[in-house]
């Protein structure tokens, strides 16, 4: 039986807000907003700029010019897509995503186009 993958409503470049997890006062990321850098549809995870930062230890080496590379660096780790929500462009608060269909005429032919819309305000995303 072929496995079907659900269509994700969060895309690369969207402004999202973390809606679950530890509060910011306790060192968590809940309430923080960031831009989606990459989407991993096979594991339902997203990489968000400035969110879920971890310390990564990389092996020390040398580049072509002789400069040292490696050591301890902080990088973003992926977060599950259910823990983030798209930010409404009007109110700057998290909202759900809906779709509106429009017919657009291109090259003499009419096509139906699905446009992503914020459920709270109705504005285009």
TrEMBL record:
Ranges where the Large ribosomal subunit protein uL24 C-terminal domain occurs: 51-124
InterPro entries listed in its UniProt record: Rib_uL2_dom2, Ribosomal_uL24, Ribosomal_uL24_C, Ribosomal_uL24_KOW, Translation_prot_SH3-like_sf
Name of one Pfam family that matches: ribosomal_L24
Listed CDD domains: KOW_RPL26
Domain of life: Bacteria
SUPFAM superfamilies: Translation proteins SH3-like domain (SSF50104)
GO function terms (MF aspect): rRNA binding; structural constituent of ribosome
GO biological process: translation
UniProt keyword terms in alphabetical order: Ribonucleoprotein, Ribosomal protein, RNA-binding, rRNA-binding
GO CC aspect terms: ribonucleoprotein complex; ribosome
Record note on quaternary structure: Part of the 50S ribosomal subunit.
Family matches, as NCBIfam families: rplX_bact
UniProt family annotation: Belongs to the universal ribosomal protein uL24 family.
Cited function: One of the proteins that surrounds the polypeptide exit tunnel on the outside of the subunit.
Protein name: Large ribosomal subunit protein uL24
Originating organism: Arthrobacter subterraneus
